[in-house]
User: What shape does this take?
Amino acid sequence: MTHDPAPRFPAALIVAHGQPSDPGPAAAEIAFLAAKVQALMPGWRIRSATLAEEGALAREVAAAGGAGLVYPLFMAGGWFTTTHLPAKLAEAGGAEWRILPPFGLDAGVQALTLTLAREAAARRGHAPADLPLLLAAHGSFRSAAPSEVAYAMADRLRDEAGFARVEAAFIDQSPRIVEAAAGFPPGSLVLPFFAARGGHVIDDLPQALAEAGFEGDLLPPVGLDARVPGLIRQALRDALKG
Assistant: This one.
C-alpha cells in the first residue's frame, strides 16, 4: 500500500531591505507583519527576510521547502527589486521563486493611501480641499523610480482624494522634506509613504520637520496601517490565481 505525499501548501516570502547597521529591529518588524499575514492565510506558509540580515534570505528559502512567491516590501520598482533582489534570491537557492510587484505599486496599497489621507482630514473636521498635505517619501539620487511613484501618488491625492495642495518631498533627493515642510501652514498633514518603521521614519523625518518648524500633524506611515496584512493576502491570492 502506498501513501500520497504530504500536501505542499503555497509558500510566500515577504522581503524588505532592512537596516544593515542594525538588522535586528527591522527583521523583527517584518516577521511580525508576516505573522499577521499568516494568521489570515492558514493554508499558506508565510515567511519573511530582510536583505540586510546576513544569510536570512537563504535560511527562509530553505525553510519554505520549495518554490513560492516573493512579496517585496519596497515602495518602488527600482534597482533593488528589479536587479538586486533577483540576484540575491538566485544566490539563496530561490531562482524559481516568482517576484511580485512591490508594495508601493500594489493597487490596494495605493487605494489605501488615498483612504488614509481622507480619514485623517475627516478626523480633524476638514474637507480634503481645505487641508494641505505633504507626502513624505524616500526618493533616490541614483534612480528616478522612487520619486516617480511618489509624484504619481501625490497627483492621485490631488485628483481623486480632493486635496487642493499636495506636494511630494524626499529624504534622499530634492525637494527635501525640510525644504518643502517649511512652506506648509500650521495644521497641515504629513503622510509618510513608507512601507515600514525604519530609521527614516523614526529619526530622519521628525528631525526634518522639526528643523523646518513644521506645526502640523505627522501621520503613521502607510505600511503600518492595520489593513496592510489583508492587502498582502489579496495580492498573494491574486498572484496564485494568475
Notes: Residues 10 and 44 are 5 Å apart (CA to CA).
